[in-house]
Structure formats: structure tokens, C-alpha cells
């Protein structure tokens, strides 16, 4: 499975749920049997969710899975005390190379 050159430019992806991201939301089941390649993708959206929150991937786990040359410019916020959130990925077992983090990250408070 390949995701190449995706450019996400929404104002805000505000979803008070789990496994939210700009590009790949939940690659867990696919990654068990297939490799996933995410390359040259850009997220410019602010994303707010409970857990598994990432600018490029929410939950993207599996051996043989790679994320390469992706950029997150969006702000990433977690609404819970979970630690599964980040600029590039929320929860990951993939190999990540040459990715850039430009946004902010933090706990969301109203």
C-alpha cells in the first residue's frame, strides 16, 4: 500500500475521537499483512483528538512499514492524558526517515 504526495490543507480537523491524522488514520490492520509506504506527504491542518493523534499518521504500526520525507506543519493536540500523540505519528512501529516537524504539540484545553 503506497501513499505518495498527499497534501492536506484543511483549517482544522477537530474530532473528539481516537486515531486521527492528516494523511493515514489507522494503518494497523493493513500493516499486519502488507507493507505501507507513506512518502512525500504534507499536513497543514490543526488536529485535535483523544489519542493516536499525528500530523501524518494516527496509528500506523507494522514491520516493513515506512514513512519517508513527510512534513507536518499543523498543530497537534490531545484531549486526554494519553501519550499517544505526536507531530508525525501518534502511535507507530514503522521506520521513519527524513520527516520534518514544524507545528506545535500539546494538551488541548478549551
Describe the structure.
The protein is mostly beta strands and 110 residues long. 5% of the residues lie in helices and 49% in strands. It has one helix at 28-33, and strands at 2-4, 7-8, 12-14, 18-21, 24-26, 37-39, 42-43, 46-49, 51-54, 57-60, 66-68, 71-72, 76-78, 85-86, 89-92, 95-97, 100-101, 105-107. The chain is globular and about 40 Å long. The N and C termini lie far apart (37 Å). 45% of the residues are buried. The model has no long low-confidence stretch (mean pLDDT 81).
Question: Brief overview, please?
Answer:
With 110 residues, this protein is mainly beta.
SSE blueprint and pairings:
Layout: E1 2-4, E2 7-8, E3 12-14, E4 18-21, E5 24-26, H1 28-33, E6 37-39, E7 42-43, E8 46-49, E9 51-54, E10 57-60, E11 66-68, E12 71-72, E13 76-78, E14 85-86, E15 89-92, E16 95-97, E17 100-101, E18 105-107
Order of helices and strands: EEEEEHEEEEEEEEEEEEE
| Structural class determined from secondary elements | mainly beta
Report the strand count.
18
Give, in spatial order, the strands making up the sheet with the most strands: 1-6-11-16
Number of helices: 1
Amino acid at each position: 500500500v503506497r501513499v505518495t504526495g498527499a497534501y492536506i490543507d484543511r483549517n482544522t480537523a477537530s474530532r473528539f475521537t481516537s486515531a486521527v491524522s492528516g494523511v493515514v488514520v489507522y494503518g494497523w490492520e493493513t500493516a499486519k499483512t502488507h507493507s505501507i509506504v507513506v512518502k512525500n506527504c504534507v499536513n497543514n491542518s490543526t488536529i485535535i483528538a483523544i489519542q493516536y493523534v499525528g500530523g501524518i499518521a494516527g496509528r500506523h504500526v507494522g514491520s516493513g512499514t515506512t514513512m519517508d520525507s513527510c512534513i507536518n506543519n499543523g498543530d497537534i493536540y490531545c484531549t486526554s492524558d494519553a501519550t499517544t500523540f505526536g507531530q508525525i505519528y501518534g502511535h507507530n512501529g514503522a521506520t521513519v526517515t527524513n520527516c520534518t516537524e514544524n507545528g506545535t504539540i500539546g494538551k488541548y484545553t478549551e
